[in-house]
Design brief:
The protein is built from 4 helices and no strands. By secondary structure, the chain is mainly α. α1 runs antiparallel to α2 and α1 runs parallel beside α3.
Length: about 80
């Protein structure tokens, strides 16, 4: 028996994949920039990608830019 969700199952999968991607990029960047406090916070707290994006674009020692993101896909 599956629980009745107020939205389709694919939405749950999309949220999971989004969160996983954002968490992975944020953890990678925090580790490479030796920002231990951010690394631990992102690892422990589940915010569905919100804290990860705030870190990546605002608080990282080297903030992520759209140009950098585009370069990942143009290789």
């Amino acid at each position: 028996m599956t629980p009745d969700l107020p939205f389709p199952n694919f939405v749950v999968v999309l949220i999971f994949l989004w969160s996983l991607m954002a968490k992975g990029v944020a953890l990678w960047r925090a580790a490479n920039l030796k920002q231990r406090n951010w690394f631990v916070a992102i690892l422990v707290i589940n915010t569905v990608g919100i804290a990860e994006l705030i870190y990546l674009f605002k608080f990282s020692k080297k903030p992520l830019t759209m140009k950098e993101i585009r370069s990942w896909f143009s290789k």
